[in-house]
Amino acid sequence: MLNRIELLQLVEHNARVKIADLATMLNASEEEIAAELEACKKDNVILGYTTMINWEKTERETVTALIEVRITPQRNQGFDKIASQFYRYPQVSSCFLMSGGFDLMLIIEDSTLREVANFVSEKIAPLEGVLSTATHFILKKYKSNGTLFTQKPKDDRETIVL
Amino acid sequence: MDIDYQSKISKVVNGIAPSAIRRFFDLANEMKGEVISLSIGEPDFVTPWNIREAGIFSLEDGNTHYSPNQGYIEVRKAISEYLQRRFDLKYDPKSQILVTVGGSEALDLIARSLIDPGDEVIILEPCFVAYKATVTLAHGVPVVIETKEEDEYRLKPEALEAAITDKTKYIILGYPGNPTGATMSRDDLAAIKDVLVRHPNIFVVSDELYSELSYTGERPVSIASFPELYDRTIVVNGFSKSFAMTGWRIGYMAGPAPLVAAMNKVHQYCIMCSPTTAQYAVIEACRNGDKEVDEMREEYNRRRRVIIKGLNDAGLKCFAPTGAFYAFPSIEGLGLSSEKFCERFLMEKKVAIVPGNAFGKCGEGHVRISYAASMENIQEAMKRLKEFVSDLKEENK
């Protein structure tokens, strides 16, 4: 019986594993794997395949900003309505409703300092219902989505008799 | 002054033949960096962080002293709970568990505490290289049973019965096995138990270092779980393989209290105690390590399937391993000894694997391939193996 969770865990960190290899690893047929992946897409479990890029290694000079937003929930709609006004902006790569000291967390990736400043002061802050914002910039990425951004460790085990 | 050093070394040490494949290992180590190594009998995973952190914290806390010889009671309690939870084995932490420097020290202590000169110990080849040596060094006589591929390297009751003499002191069972990846089911072990019940003077040493790495879908069974054998079995286990802790050098034995007391005596004079830092780390391993162990096993299992398919694609006959992290395919019919096969594979395709004769005479004609390596390396190595085997077949035409 093909284990959907195990399949998802395998493709989560490497979407490029070949179907034939997935079939071998999970002791299933290629048809079963293809059908299960298709079913996951249909069920909106798999939403897309992206590439992990370390932009720091390229000549592009971009920043990642985390924006905390405190808002007033709206009658009948809670936070959902106002959240949708934020996440529709293409520059918002993630948007979460949070517990704790603020309500929404917006993440803007691969942007410039000026763009983020303009976005916060012109689009977010003036919106009705927004009480306050606090913007944090990421200085260095060590690990993101389970992937290390620092040098990968080398396999330097010695061959010994055992 | 000319000293004939060789003549000064004890006969028993001189009697142990130097490893025939030493040269091969030296070669593989020299070429490190340019070769893919599927030769190593240790996990490629690093010890899970929570376990490492527990060791680090113990150092920060200043725990840098000797522990009691037998190991901290807290460690023995944690091991006892772990054995109960994972293997349904009951051992009293006060009197029945001894914390050792890896499973290897446990094997040595057992040999030195049980063997009188001339006593026989039954070992099953192909097997871990230390079994024979520890027995010989303790002035015992290893009696080899050759297990066979057609039996999936399981011990057959007839073979055991035939090997037993009135000098037999104990038998070493190593399942899941290095280098074959074989396991023994409850039924297989029950048949062995029936033989041993007829020979009440023989002890069982059950090396269960790979017990967490079993891919049969069922929890592995320890021979100590048979009530008839509980009082005659010493379980050897450790953290090296299942928790990826080889370098910490920590393992343990669990068995009858009078034997553990005798072995503790030997242990206290040669080792004092196991490394303290490692002892603190394994408390964490026993109590909060199940998830990582299960995840590593799942990953090994996927690699195992890739290896089996790779060997089939290459046209090598291989019994499908059900435990540990080794495959032991046959290379018969390709016109090379296992040493020559490995040497040429290393030189021509830059992949290191181990000749089967390293694990006993009957391992000849086989090679050991470890899948304690990254999936990419395994896939690339299998591709090169296929090319190599087809080159050899071309030559033999």
Summarize the structure in words.
The complex is a heterodimer of chains A (162) and B (397). The longest helix of chain A is centred in the first third of the chain and has 13 residues, at 30-42. Chain A has a four-stranded antiparallel beta sheet. By secondary structure, chain A is an alpha+beta fold. The mean pLDDT of chain A is 89. Chain A folds into two domains: 4-42; 55-139, Lrp/AsnC effector binding domain/regulation of amino acid metabolism (RAM) domain (Alpha-Beta Plaits), CATH 3.30.70.920. Helix content of chain A is 31%, strand content 22%. Chain B is of the alpha/beta class and 397 residues long. Chain B is globular. Chain B has helices at residues 5-8, 11-15, 22-30, 49-60, 73-87, 102-114, 130-137, 157-163, 186-197, 227-230, 257-270, 276-288, 290-314, 338-349, 375-396; strands spanning 36-37, 97-100, 120-125, 141-146, 168-174, 203-207, 233-238, 251-254, 326-327, 351-352, 354-355, 367-370. In chain B, the strands form three sheets. Chain B has a seven-stranded mixed beta sheet, sandwiched between helices. The longest helix of chain B is centred in the C-terminal third of the chain and has 25 residues, at 290-314. Chain B contains 15 helices and twelve strands. In chain B, helix 6 (102-114) packs parallel to helix 7 and helix 6 crosses helix 11 (257-270). Chain B folds into two domains: 5-46 and 292-396, Aspartate Aminotransferase, domain 1, CATH 3.90.1150.10; 62-289, Aspartate Aminotransferase, domain 2. Classes of the chains: A alpha+beta (162), B alpha/beta (397). The A-B interface holds A 6, 10, 21, 24-27, 153, 155-162 and B 19, 21-22, 25, 28-29, 32, 37, 39-42, 44, 46, 128-130, 178, 298, 302-303, 305-306, 309, 352, 358, 373-375, 377, 379.
